[in-house]
Amino acid sequence: MQIIRWQGVEQPQEHELRSRMQKEGLAPYSWSNGPGDTYAVHSHSYEKVLYCVRGSIRFVLPDQPEVSRSIDIAAGDCLILPAGTRHSAHVGPYGVTCLEATR
To answer: Which domain holds residue 70?
Structure first.
């Protein structure tokens, strides 16, 4: 698992993040959820690359040590989850929009 925090002074624009992903050979798609939405624990058979465009989302990794079990992602942050990583997700109070791709 890897977390890349946004270092820019201004909020990222969706087209900038999409372009960044495409330069890496990824084919991103966009999705959004409303405040408080949740995803139950699940995993994927592929590596998941996710950029938060707006809002926030918390990923909970139940198989990780307590100290690194919860990861909060905000605008511009990138989360890379290896295939098979079990996780759930909880959308923040203002909803979330993400760009996601498989690798």
So the answer is: 2-102
Angle at 28 between CA 74 and CA 68, to 5 degrees: 40
List the CATH number of the domain containing 56. 2.60.120.10
pLDDT in tens, 43-96: 999 999 999 999 999 999 999 887 779 999 999 999 999 999 999 999 999 999
Nearest to 95 by CA among 32, 51, 39, 53: 32
| Bridge partners for 102 per DSSP | 48
Number of domains in the chain: 1
Closest CA to 77 of 26, 8, 31, 30: 8
* Contact status, residue 59 vs residue 1, Cβ threshold 8 Å: no
| pLDDT per residue as tens digits for the range 17-39 | 999 999 999 999 999 999 999 99
Contacts of 49 by beta carbon, 8 Å cutoff, 6+ apart: 21, 24, 26, 28, 78, 79, 80, 100, 101, 102, 103
